[in-house]
Every structure is written in structure tokens, then in C-alpha cells.
Design brief:
Elements: E1 14-18, H1 22-35, E2 39-43, H2 46-55, E3 60-64, H3 73-82, E4 91-96, H4 101-110, E5 114-117, H5 122-138, H6 140-147, H7 151-161, H8 171-184, H9 188-201, H10 205-217, H11 221-225
Parallel strand pairs: 1-2, 1-3, 3-4, 4-5
Helix pairs in contact: 1-5, 6-7, 7-8, 8-9, 8-10, 9-10
Length: about 230
């Protein structure tokens, strides 16, 4: 197992804020500067956000739900993930004034690291950002291994992290990562059993999708189509 580098210091982090409200950018940037974050970039629409991600790699992305008229935050999130601008080591926060059940369900499925309800205030931003930094440190080994394709090591560190109740709200994400690692390792039968157990625990789309992937990889097409 290769030596894993230490997590980045706070003044080394690169943060991207994607929101169509200039006041939000000013508030977040000011709050983060007080914490010691020196590199905060801003985008007021989806197109600009993609351009910035093409030019640089961001450790933390704060993404508004209503980011622009042509693309909402969820579609932008999926695009950034698809193009690997957001990876396993990225911290993603959704911003929204809306708290409808539909929105909450979408957030549960996409599994961002946090959800901040507008209007924001500086003290709350700093409190949640510090919390997220603490989580980044605790999950750093898992995310580093995933990002570097060392899936066996990622499973090892994820299973250790599942024993830490300090990151209990991230346990579903860790379990999802373990399942994805098993698929990457082509351990399809083991992954099938793993996702089948998770289906008893979580009624989330990602569990059904993961199970379907394992079945298709084993040519169990009929079983997969029944999900």
C-alpha cells in the first residue's frame, strides 16, 4: 500500500462558488478568507463554471440549485462529475433557498457533502466549512485511494471509517464507495451480495443501480430487468 500524502492545508485549498447572486459570492468569499482560505473563484452561470473547471482543479465546489436559466445545479453537478472535474476527493455543497421534498430527495440521491439553506450568514458558513474540513481529513485516505484507482486499499480504509461514528452521516456514501470499488475490482458476485444487503437498508436509486450493474456483468439480464 503506497504512502498516502497528508491532506491539504486550508490555505492550499481551491474553492469554486457557483451562484447567480453576487451577494452570495461576496459573503462566502469574505467568510472563507477569515478562515484562511486564500483561493476562492466565482462563477455566476453554468458555462463559466465549466470553463473554470477546465482550467483548474477545485477541492471544494459550492453549487447553487438555481445557477442559471439554461441549466440547474443538479445537471451541472452531473456534467462536472461526468467530465471528472469533480472526483472522489472533491467536497461538494449545494446551496438553495428551496427545501421541498422533491429537492431533498434529489440531494439524497446525488449525495453531496452538505446542503446549505439560504439566506446564508458568515458564521454559519464558517461553522459548516470547518465541519467539512474535518470530514475531509477523516475520509482523506479513502478518497485518495479511490481517486488513484487503488480500490482494494479504498475498501480497507472505508471499512475502518465505518467504525467512526463521528462520520455517521457519511456511512451511506462510504458503503456506496465500497460497492463501486468491488465493481472496479471485477468482484461481481461479491458486489451483488453486497448491494443486495444494502437494498434491505436503503431504498435509494444508487443501490438499485449498483445491484443492476453487478447482475448485468454476470449476464443475469432477467434478474436485472426485474429491479
Amino acid at each position: 500500500m503506497d504512502k498516502i500524502p497528508l491532506p491539504k492545508a486550508i490555505d492550499e485549498l481551491k474553492v469554486l462558488v457557483v451562484d447567480n447572486q453576487a451577494l452570495i459570492h461576496d459573503l462566502i468569499k469574505s467568510a472563507l478568507l477569515e478562515l484562511g482560505v486564500k483561493q476562492v473563484s466565482s462563477a455566476q452561470n453554468a458555462f463559466h463554471a465549466v470553463r473554470l473547471c477546465q482550467q483548474d482543479t477545485f477541492d471544494v465546489v459550492l453549487l447553487a440549485f438555481n445557477v442559471s436559466s439554461d441549466k440547474d445545479g443538479f445537471h451541472l453537478f452531473e456534467e462536472l462529475k461526468h467530465n471528472n472535474y469533480i472526483g472522489d476527493k472533491s467536497t461538494v455543497v449545494f446551496l438553495s433557498a428551496e427545501t421541498s421534498m422533491e429537492l431533498v430527495n434529489c440531494i439524497i440521491e446525488l449525495q453531496p457533502d452538505d446542503f446549505w439553506v439560504k439566506p446564508l450568514d458568515a458564521s454559519r458558513v464558517q461553522q459548516r466549512f470547518n465541519y467539512l474540513l474535518n470530514i475531509r481529513r477523516k475520509l482523506h485516505k479513502v478518497m485518495h485511494c479511490m481517486d488513484n484507482g487503488d480500490y482494494a486499499a479504498a475498501i480497507y480504509h472505508a471499512e475502518r471509517s465505518l467504525k467512526d461514528m463521528g462520520v455517521a452521516e457519511y456511512h451511506p456514501r462510504l458503503k456506496r464507495m465500497i460497492g463501486e470499488c468491488l465493481i472496479h475490482l471485477r468482484e461481481f458476485a461479491t458486489a451483488e451480495r453486497y448491494f443486495s444487503r444494502l437494498k434491505e437498508e436503503y431504498d435509494h436509486a444508487w443501490v438499485h443501480i449498483g445491484l443492476a450493474k453487478t447482475l448485468f456483468r454476470q449476464d443475469k439480464v432477467d434478474e436485472a430487468e426485474l429491479l
